[in-house]
Amino acid sequence: MGKSSLKETSFAMNMNSVHSRETVCVFGTGDFGRSLGNKMFQCGYSVVFGSRNPELSGLHPKGIEVLSYKEAAQRSDLIIIAIHREHYNFLIELAEELQGKILVDISNNLKINQYPESNAEYLAELVPGAKIVKAFNTISAWALQSGTLDASRQAFVCGDDKESKQRVMDIGRTIGLTPMDQGSLKAAKEIENYPLQLFPMWKFPLYLSAALCVFYFVYCLLREVIYPYIQEEKDNTFFLAISIPNRIFPGLALNLLALVYLPGIIAAILQLYRGTKYSRFPNWLDHWMLCRKQLGLVALAFAFLHVMYTLVIPIRHYVRWKWSSRIINQIKTNKTDPFNTTTAWLSDSYVALGILGFFLFVLLGITSLPSVSNTVNWREFRFVQSKLGYLTLILCTAHTLVFGGKRFLSPSILRWYLPSIYVLSLIIPCTVLVLKFILVMPCFDRPLTRIRQGWERNSKVSKKAQLGSGNNEV
Ligand SMILES: Cc1cc2nc3c(=O)[nH]c(=O)nc-3n(C[C@H](O)[C@H](O)[C@H](O)COP(=O)(O)OP(=O)(O)OC[C@H]3O[C@@H](n4cnc5c(N)ncnc54)[C@H](O)[C@@H]3O)c2cc1C
Ligand SMILES: NC(=O)C1=CN([C@@H]2O[C@H](COP(=O)(O)OP(=O)(O)OC[C@H]3O[C@@H](n4cnc5c(N)ncnc54)[C@H](OP(=O)(O)O)[C@@H]3O)[C@@H](O)[C@H]2O)C=CC1
Ligand code: HEM
Ligand SMILES: [Fe+3]
């Protein structure tokens, strides 16, 4: 056996021997108590269960004892309470045995904010002499048992006593979790609400996309199907299959991409206006900032759909029929359309811009994968996400502008005074790019950079510093 692996085994033996000396007590032989207790046992801890009916509970590996709650409490100074909050009352009678011990509250509730205080704070009231740590409630018993911890490896931990928190985090690490210290016991409420939320950061992006989809669909239906049906007695209902989706998806991709960068602009304008970076953003802006990643990923998904719908354009019956009837027409009228280099240039460049924009878009998506974003430092991440992100927005906006070309301005594209949908798709991206262009001007960029480095227009500190340095710029 090689030298290094010899070292590894002795380290593991060491670790296990350290843990095998440490006894952990688990109250409750239910789903979670058993899965967590067995997992700790496998990782070298000696585990003792407390139960209402020690003699009845089977299903434990050899070497694990099941005692009454009172006896089990005396066997360890760290007790994991794998019991529903509704059944905590009996712990009051054990206050003496639990005095000074670490009690780990792992409970969840059925509803968000079900009780006025968190279960952990409730436990601290019931057993005031114990040190309470909140942990492991975001882990599922099944995942612990089956070892499929991938989704929920993160274990949020909080508590008022540092040392107790550390010991609980060590247990978390040993059983393969990634403990994240969330601070004092005050954080317990948020930690308990966490497993009850459903994709909290995805709500806004998904609701917004759904609303935009409906708007785009109705708008295109009006312009592309109903208008020709009424005005020209044409039946374009087949547009519903590809043409209309290939107006909706690119339009959403472009709009959502622009909405990823708009909050950063609003943040910058707010910081300039307030002359400080230290005042909190309004909640709606904070929440918008925090779900930009999800917005960006939804935008990328729509861009993918657009690219796929675009790839099938040449094989569509309608397109092939259009092309062939145009050729037949030219033969009949004995007139061929002269090759137009400008048109060739325009059509190739808008497609090329789309490809380049899409390439960077995918790059943004790749860098947001945790396994990738963990390998780059903050500056590199910002460079890709912010700098390349803006370049993506510029390319995709240019792609759409060139695609639209001169048709923009001609009144002929209006149908019931409604312009083509791509004109609407350009409003937010162009606004964002114009505002960004203004903000990068030195007259704005310089003060903004100073503000972001901590300078404040009305702070006494910076005034004193200025007076000290004789600089009277206020
Ligand atoms: C496909 C795709 C994937 C994406 N993945 C991610 C991702 O994984 N992670 C991610 O964060 N974004 C992601 N995004 C969103 C976007 O790329 C980043 O948020 C990017 O950093 C935004 O850059 P910005 O210049 O608009 O703003 P930022 O550079 O973020 O902010 C501009 C300025 O605003 C201020 N500011 C920013 N946030 C705050 C705040 N919360 N409180 C106070 N001040 C603040 C700072 O002073 C900052 O300098 C993704 C976008 C796409 C399209
Ligand atoms: N199941 C899971 O995946 C997860 C559960 N949790 C939390 O872990 C805790 C335990 O959950 P779980 O194991 O699923 O629940 P179970 O109902 O399966 O087990 C709870 C255990 O509590 C003990 N208990 C003590 N007093 C009572 C009482 N008066 N009535 C009923 N049971 C009592 C019982 O053990 P005994 O009979 O030995 O006394 C019982 O087996 C809960 O707070 C839950 O929110 C957190 C994350 C995930
Ligand atoms: C491989 C990349 C891409 C290719 C080949 C491509 C190609 C095309 C083509 C051929 C059209 C015209 C479709 C038609 O005639 O109906 C088009 C339109 C459009 N594209 Fe792309 N595109 C790409 C990427 C993107 C991306 C990444 C975005 C935005 C984020 C985008 C946004 C748009 C928009 C808004 C339109 C106008 C749709 C309309 O309203 O008609 N494209 N693209
Ligand atoms: Fe249960």
From TrEMBL:
<feature type="domain" description="Ferric oxidoreductase">
    <location>
        <begin position="252"/>
        <end position="396"/>
    </location>
</feature>
<feature type="transmembrane region" description="Helical">
    <location>
        <begin position="206"/>
        <end position="230"/>
    </location>
</feature>
<keyword id="KW-1133">Transmembrane helix</keyword>
<keyword id="KW-0560">Oxidoreductase</keyword>
<dbReference type="GO" id="GO:0070207">
    <property type="term" value="P:protein homotrimerization"/>
</dbReference>
<dbReference type="InterPro" id="IPR036291">
    <property type="entry name" value="NAD(P)-bd_dom_sf"/>
</dbReference>
<keyword id="KW-0967">Endosome</keyword>
<dbReference type="GO" id="GO:0020037">
    <property type="term" value="F:heme binding"/>
</dbReference>
<dbReference type="InterPro" id="IPR028939">
    <property type="entry name" value="P5C_Rdtase_cat_N"/>
</dbReference>
<keyword id="KW-0274">FAD</keyword>
<dbReference type="GO" id="GO:0071949">
    <property type="term" value="F:FAD binding"/>
</dbReference>
<feature type="transmembrane region" description="Helical">
    <location>
        <begin position="294"/>
        <end position="315"/>
    </location>
</feature>
<dbReference type="GO" id="GO:0008823">
    <property type="term" value="F:cupric reductase (NADH) activity"/>
</dbReference>
<keyword id="KW-0813">Transport</keyword>
<keyword id="KW-0408">Iron</keyword>
<keyword id="KW-0285">Flavoprotein</keyword>
<dbReference type="GO" id="GO:0010008">
    <property type="term" value="C:endosome membrane"/>
</dbReference>
<dbReference type="GO" id="GO:0033212">
    <property type="term" value="P:iron import into cell"/>
</dbReference>
<keyword id="KW-0479">Metal-binding</keyword>
<keyword id="KW-0410">Iron transport</keyword>
<dbReference type="GO" id="GO:0045444">
    <property type="term" value="P:fat cell differentiation"/>
</dbReference>
<keyword id="KW-0406">Ion transport</keyword>
<feature type="transmembrane region" description="Helical">
    <location>
        <begin position="349"/>
        <end position="367"/>
    </location>
</feature>
<dbReference type="InterPro" id="IPR013130">
    <property type="entry name" value="Fe3_Rdtase_TM_dom"/>
</dbReference>
<feature type="domain" description="Pyrroline-5-carboxylate reductase catalytic N-terminal">
    <location>
        <begin position="23"/>
        <end position="109"/>
    </location>
</feature>
<dbReference type="GO" id="GO:0005654">
    <property type="term" value="C:nucleoplasm"/>
</dbReference>
<dbReference type="GO" id="GO:0046872">
    <property type="term" value="F:metal ion binding"/>
</dbReference>
<dbReference type="GO" id="GO:0009055">
    <property type="term" value="F:electron transfer activity"/>
</dbReference>
<dbReference type="Pfam" id="PF01794">
    <property type="entry name" value="Ferric_reduct"/>
</dbReference>
<keyword id="KW-0186">Copper</keyword>
<protein>
    <submittedName>
        <fullName>STEAP4 metalloreductase</fullName>
    </submittedName>
</protein>
<dbReference type="InterPro" id="IPR051267">
    <property type="entry name" value="STEAP_metalloreductase"/>
</dbReference>
<comment type="similarity">
    <text>Belongs to the STEAP family.</text>
</comment>
<keyword id="KW-0472">Membrane</keyword>
<keyword id="KW-0812">Transmembrane</keyword>
<dbReference type="GO" id="GO:0052851">
    <property type="term" value="F:ferric-chelate reductase (NADPH) activity"/>
</dbReference>
<dbReference type="Pfam" id="PF03807">
    <property type="entry name" value="F420_oxidored"/>
</dbReference>
<feature type="transmembrane region" description="Helical">
    <location>
        <begin position="250"/>
        <end position="273"/>
    </location>
</feature>
<feature type="transmembrane region" description="Helical">
    <location>
        <begin position="388"/>
        <end position="409"/>
    </location>
</feature>
<dbReference type="GO" id="GO:0015677">
    <property type="term" value="P:copper ion import"/>
</dbReference>
<feature type="transmembrane region" description="Helical">
    <location>
        <begin position="421"/>
        <end position="444"/>
    </location>
</feature>
<dbReference type="GO" id="GO:0005886">
    <property type="term" value="C:plasma membrane"/>
</dbReference>
